[in-house]
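Me: I hope this is not a bother. Any chance you could explain this protein sequence and its structure tokens? It all follows right here:
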Amino acid sequence: MKHELKQSAPTGEGVYHAPWERHFDKVLTPFEEFIHRQTTSGLLLMGTAVLALILANGPLAHAYEHLIHTPMSIGAGSWQLEMSLHHWINDGLMVLFFFVVGLELKRELLVGELANPRMAALPIAAAIGGMVVPALIYFVINPGGEGAAGWGIPMATDIAFAIGALALLASRVPKALITFLVALAIVDDLGAVLVIAIFYTDTIAMGPLGMAGAMFALLIVLNMIGIRNAIPYFVVAVLLWFALLQSGVHATLAGVLGALTVPAQPKYNPKRFCDHVSELMERFRESHDKDANIMTNDDMRAVVQTLENGVHNVQAPLQRLEHGWHIPVAYIVIPIFALANAGIPLDTGSLGDTLSNPVMLGVALGLVLGKFIGITGASWLMLRFGLAELPKDTRFVQIAGVSLLGGIGFTMSIFVAQLAFPGNAELLVMAKTGILFASLLAGVSGFVWLYLVSRRGTAKSSAPSH
């Protein structure tokens, strides 16, 4: 311990920093923290996708395929639930991803960009345009046959990749443009969730569905009676997940439904918290004068514990859970999903057939061209008719650049592709190839577009010409 303190660097009276501690002293706003995490998550996701492609096309291809299809089960007594590792990731682990999506959506609706109807109009309309036009383009190319089921694939935007790419241009684009993309991507995620729930559910078992409804109702009751401890919500949400899994409705929707019931009201209001902290700090100082060693001063330790409880109670459970779960989802869940789903066997000999495949073309054109036309077109119409206004310091040409980034559909698009083509390996490969190709093209073109039209440190606001 003496050696540890000796190695630490003093930065003020009674303050010591270990070599890697200084980074954690920077205070970030929740939005800055969100952007930082999305940027890092996007880079990690990119690396994981590349690793999956290497594994699927290298000497470990057979072992990789065998691993993700390995059966895994949990059970007690005669009861057993068995799925492949691939299904556990897609149907189980991804519930956490949808849970964070639900938390972000609820926060945006309550206090974010989507809470103000005037400010929310533009990203909502842009998101709807960015979902409808890609689906129509895909349907025109694939009007019938097995491939027609993939119309929902190009509707989605990958929030981590898209925001990560835009955040790299943070010194050249206004902060409001990043906020616009966040709101657009969250509405887009909500649209994808609804599409999955309504259109990608084959058969429904009414008994388990009724049980799921009862679990959701119980979660609402927990919220209404003021339960703020996360454990009861977690237990009921697990039962909700299992009921949905048995019902035929995609089980990951349990994450969104659970998130929507998490309380958004703190126990203490800020004024009461401030007064309480002042009282506690006065008591802390008095105790410190008697015994400065917190290891032996029980009264000081009690005050610190009370402060910790107060810090938890002045934050809404919604805030705490979103903050607590964002890192494991962004840095563990989504990369694992990418590792299990982005491994596409590439055959350069049949590259021509792949590029001309209707499913591949529908997905790629839907994401790149459809997102650009849909987001830009819907935004122009809203501004043209005075139904919305541009975000602060943002130019319309920058909205067009964001619409290209909206074509990065990686995580959610791959997820929908798995639902659209179950058991059809050939069409699934075509869909994933289109997703990867389009996401790369959309990301690069959107980045270059915004780099060229935005100047460092400047951003003028102007509406599109009428």
About this structure: The longest strand covers residues 71-76. The chain has two domains: 24-71+83-200+250-265+316-453, 271-314. DSSP finds 18 helices and four strands in the chain. The CA atoms of residues 234 and 442 lie 38 Å apart.
